[in-house]
Amino acid sequence: MSTTASLIATDIDYERHGFQTGTLRLPWSHDRSAYGHIPIPLAVLNAGDGPTVLLTGGNHGDEYEGPVALMKLMQRMPSLSIRGRIIVIPGLNFPAFVNGSRTSPIDGGNLNRLFPGSRHGKPTEMIAHYVETELLPRADVVIDLHAGGASFEHAPTLLASPPSGDAARRARYLDLVRAFGAPYTMIMDLLGEDRTFAAAAERHDTLFLCGEFGGHAGCDAANLAIVESGLQRVLHRLDVLHDAAHDAPPRTRYLRVEGTQHYVYAPHAGVFEPAFALNDEVRSGQLAGRLFDPQEPWRAPRDIAFRGDGRVMCARTFARVEAGDCIALLAAEAPLD
Predict the structure, then answer these.
(1) At 243, is the pLDDT very low, low, confident or very high (cuts 50, 70, 90)?
(2) From its phi and psi, is residue 191 left (phi > 0), alpha (psi between -120 and 50) or beta?
(3) Residue burial 30-55, b: 16+ Cβ < 10 Å; e: rest
(4) How far is the CA of 303 from the CAs of 110, 175, 287, 323, in angstroms?
(5) What is the distance between the alpha carbons of residues 7 and 10, in angstroms, rounded to a whole number?
(6) pLDDT digits over 253-303, tens only?
(7) Within a domain: 3
(8) Which of 129, 140, 268, 274 has the fewest C-beta atoms lying within 10 Å of its C-beta?
(9) Same domain, yes or no, for 124 and 273?
(10) What whole-number distance in Å separates Cα of residue 299 and Cα of residue 115?
């Protein structure tokens, strides 16, 4: 066996035609289970010729609109008439998903900051390695579904990374963005972060769509509907799904995160009182909120201002902050096409 092959095993045969359910067996030897593994559920529907679409949720374990939409899709898959292949994993970082936490309770791993992972790493690194070495080489298109989790509320937004260089490939990508029809489509700036699923997909030249649809570690009905209808329209646009009617996509609004000026951070620990709401249009210098010091409650709070113009796309839900916590994320209008 190659020393680069993943140690995660599965009984799923990705090449077999038809519908299969099963698990990825993530090796996990610990005090109470010397030869154990963590089963990560997945389903595959393969109809032969056509594109392979990988659909994932639960990259962070406290984000639910994506996993719920994908579990509902899995239950419909045996009756679907498709072209190509659909691979669905509702809880990619399964230990975090069943724990309801952003990161894994086993190793503290944030899956979306661990790509390309490691064959011999901790469990979350092994999941990233399996995606990098086994799933991405099979996929033509990946849709990874997120929300703000417990600490954020996020406006329903598709995060886009249009390919550069190849005009036809870029046009195809933007066609999928329009087909999804999210209320907002945002070009994200992660300030140089290159350990994400999106970065891994780019390494494999795979078309990658990601989205943020809600927060508070809840499952919002309106955001869930956006996810479900968006997935269906993209599968139709790819000519993968044939057997169901779909509505014309709503028009999306394009925005861009423009560096550090669009991030608001807590300068020190305290309790934050916001002076804004999600979706507000704000200006540079405008008051973002006040930061109170519970150790010296008699002192006036520290005013925190926005450093750029834009729309508030993401807002912190926890009032308690530590130094360096992100309080808000802005984005400015920026047409893509």
Answers:
(1) low
(2) left
(3) eeeeeeebbebbbbbbbbeebbbbbb
(4) 32, 43, 7, 15
(5) 10
(6) 999 999 999 999 999 999 999 999 999 999 999 999 999 999 999 999 999
(7) no
(8) 268
(9) no
(10) 44
